[in-house]
Amino acid sequence: YEGKKSRNEISVFDERMCASLKREETLRSSIKDCIEKGDFHLCYQPIIDITSNKITSFEVLLRWQFNDEFIPPSEFIDIAERYGKINFLGEFVLEQAIQSLRQLNELDSTLALSINVSVLQLENHNFLALLAGLIETYAVEPSNVHLEITETVMIKNLEYLSKVITQIKNTGVHISIDDFGTGFSSISVLKELSVDYIKIDKSFIDNICDYSKDESIVSAVTKMSHMIGCKVIAEGVEKKEQLTILEKLSVDKYQGFLFSKPVQLSEAIKLIS
Ligand code: C2E
Ligand code: MG
Ligand code: MG
Ligand code: MG
């Protein structure tokens, strides 16, 4: 009986594995065509200065409408990273974003865009030239371009990454560490890399009102960040009470559904007009 049960379990597992591999294969092989067809587009979520209550930038978030299905970035970014498509996808995002920045800066010259980049993109030797080329082509202020480093893959060569980031910063572009406190992002990254912003992950903000440990962690991370010259952005703020605590802890900026969900460019333009 035991043997039969485990064999059944194995076959159910196999079927599920098979379905998920098929889906992965479908998505992987569709990325390129879908970019060309216009099935990918960008959304923009405001980042607000807590003291002035003004929008200082927008985070650029990629969206994929695949046939009738909305594929979440958590799924397709992972696939793109694992199958060598992230540079291609990242280039699309970078160009579209800098083009939008140009448009937004015509209305407000101080507004910035925060663009997510994978560590794998930074490891590509053409990245700096691509970035500098787009900044020149669209004649945007480099300091209005912020790159959010999403550390979803292990940094293989911290020395090389550190060199690239220094070169990027020398062009005037700002650097943020995304999802700070989760995954691979750690204090050693802050020691090695020169960054402008630390984004505290939503998981520390969720229970900040009723779980004192989170409040202590956010307080300590904020103090440490300020001491090393970084500004702090809180991610995923949904309630007024969370914002009240963040203000008390001297967090600089916040982002979340409390102010606005990610919106289309036309909507973003309305928000700053
Ligand atoms: P992220 O960079 O940490 O982006 C923030 C995520 O939190 C976004 O999810 C955003 O929609 C969501 N969010 C913001 N405020 C709230 C809130 O108040 N409540 C809740 N529940 N969620 C909130 P999204 O758009 O699904 O993106 C997920 C992740 O996918 C991003 O996390 C980022 O790591 C990655 N991603 C998105 N676009 C790109 C891209 O163009 N390039 C790369 N490399 N990664 C991207
Ligand atoms: Mg981000
Ligand atoms: Mg984040
Ligand atoms: Mg996050």
Automatic annotation (TrEMBL):
Record's keyword terms, sorted: Hydrolase, Membrane, Nucleotidyltransferase, Transferase, Transmembrane, Transmembrane helix
Domain EAL per the UniProt entry, residue ranges: 24-273
UniProt GO MF annotations: cyclic-guanylate-specific phosphodiesterase activity; diguanylate cyclase activity
Name of the protein in question: Bifunctional diguanylate cyclase/phosphodiesterase
Source species: Psychromonas arctica
